[in-house]
Structure prediction request, 117 residues.
Amino acid sequence: QVQLVESGGGLVQPGGSQRLSCAASGFTFSNSAMTWYRQAPGKKRELVAVISSAGGVTNYADSVKGRFTISRDNAKNTVYLQMNSLKPEDTAVYYCDIGWGAGCAYCGQGTQVTVSS
Prediction:
């Protein structure tokens, strides 16, 4: 069955960097666009970044543009989110999902990112 396992979260200081990973299985990863979402306490889920199946097309939320980079390794069935210049408002649980902003139909357990000094 479809499984998405997010990892790499943790506590990071403002201005720091963090790299999230999402390991995928149970479907043809190389044929699928992938999306990262996040949800902060008391807030609606937000689309963060999306990447096409071959990795050639990406799109970002305005709030992370220029700071975050989505990438993928189809040989490893893994999608990444490199987060730089982190801000306290980036604190959230981060999820990955199959598809181009399809709405977290297959989101995993998520990984917590906390940006705080």
Q: What stands out?
A: The mean pLDDT is 96. Strands lie at 3-7, 10-12, 18-25, 34-39, 46-51, 58-60, 68-73, 78-83, 92-98, 111-115. Residues 14 and 50 are 24 Å apart (CA to CA).
